[in-house]
Amino acid sequence: MSAATVAASGPPTTDKAQTAADPKRILVGAVTMIAVGWFIGNGFLALAYYPQWFAVGMPVFDKIIQALLAMVLGIGGAVLFFYCMNVFVEGLPGRLGQFLMPYAWILPGYFTIGLLLLYPAIQTVNYSLANEDSTAYVTPIYKNFQDVFADEGFTRTIGNNLLWLLIVPATTVVIGLLVAVLADRLSPKGESISKAMMFMPMAISFVGASTIWGFIYDYQSGDTQIGLLNAIVTAVGGEAQSWLTIDRFALNSMLLMVIVVWLQVGYAMVLLSTAIKNVPEDTLEAARIDGASELKIFFLVVIPQMKGTIITVFVTVFIMVMKIFDIVYVMTNGNFKTNVIANMFFQELFVQRNAGKASAIVVILLIAVIPVLIYQVRHFKREEAER
Question: Are 75 and 122 contained in the same domain?
């Protein structure tokens, strides 16, 4: 062959798309994937149903050992499974392997999400159409939903949830924004200390916060009051009150809302403070040169530029409030007209033992949350497109 012919033909191609299948890698990958999946599944079943197999005779250490085994099994098993899957896909013919490679890494995640999120949701809808012990479907099929909406307590509960949704997210955003603006005007050290103090309640669980505020709202029938609020009232000549039983103007519900606001203000403050610092200094200087007051600059320049963060904080707190349960359960258990949807579900399932009606309540809550989630996703996409 002449040099000209070689030059014309060019270098030999190494197109990966033309790679032939490797049966050995396919077989090894498939077998090891099945084996690893079987081992992981049975390992978790053993931890769940036969914990005595891993016991050393000391309860504290038994729990620690089981937790460590679960972590090793979950993380190590996932790494090994993905490695075996990669071997399997690389053994496929070139084009097919290239096509399946992205899906091979994504599909297990989708499968896990489906197993942990979609399957329970579908089962909940199924149970909402069944009787109280989920052994047969009710007649008519919508009977549980009919019973829920016919329940006078549910109507009051919906009203309480709406009140929570109207007050808590807006109050959290307003106070968080106010604290963020004031902290931004302090010295760096003062700003750090004030933000740390405001963010600290975020480290407390809802149950822990309820216990703390339970002492603040506490009422004693005698003259001595250990509750901070009643101690202040009696110190100024007032009469001690059982605050959490006063349902006039939904006062007791609002006192519960104070706890949530106290917990979430730190979260709102951190995000809003970051948004304030990201406002370009040039726009602020231009507004000052044009003669705008600081108040006008804040509302007409700063707020519009942090609108996205404000919406994110508001929607996040909004979704959290729709599912509020812990605080109401610990403080009043839904008594004195303070009940909310999540606590009503808990009472129907674990007190009344009516799984059908409880599932119907969850389905209603799920339907109510979906539009907010869709809005949040669209908002994120719109923000990403504008960057």
Answer: yes
DSSP 240-287: ---GGG--GGGHHHHHHHHHHHHHHHHHHHHHHHHHHHTS-HHHHHHH
DSSP codes, 49-110: H-GGGG--S-HHHHHHHHHHHHHIIIIIHHHHHHHHHHHHHHTS-HHHHHHHHHHHHHHHHH
Q: Which two tokens stand for residue 8?
A: 């014309």
Query: In this structure, is residue 228 part of a structural domain?
Result: no
User: What is the domain count for the chain?
Assistant: 2
Distance between CA 137 and CA 29 in Å, rounded?
44
The size of the chain, in residues, is 387
Strand partners, 137: 130
| Burial class for 308, CB neighbours closer than 10 Å (0-12, 13-18, 19+) | middle
Q: What's the rounded mean pLDDT across residues 105-131?
A: 87
| Amino acid found at 83 | Y
Q: What is the mean pLDDT of residues 235-251?
A: 91
pLDDT at 4 over 50: no
What is the pLDDT averaged over residues 277-287? Answer: 89
Domain ranges, residue 196: 144-211+247-386
Residue 26 lies in a domain: yes
> C-alpha angle 336/340/343, rounded to 5°?
95
* Whether 89 contacts 21, CB under 8 Å: no
Alpha-carbon separation of residue 138 from 120, 127, 128, 142, 355 (angstroms): 20, 10, 9, 8, 12
Q: Is residue 238 part of a domain?
A: no
Model confidence at 17: pLDDT above 60: no
Residues 6+ away with beta carbon under 8 Å from 365: 322, 323, 341, 342, 345
347 with 269, same domain: the answer is yes
Q: Is 102 exposed, middle or buried (0-12, 13-18, 19+ CB in 10 A)?
A: exposed
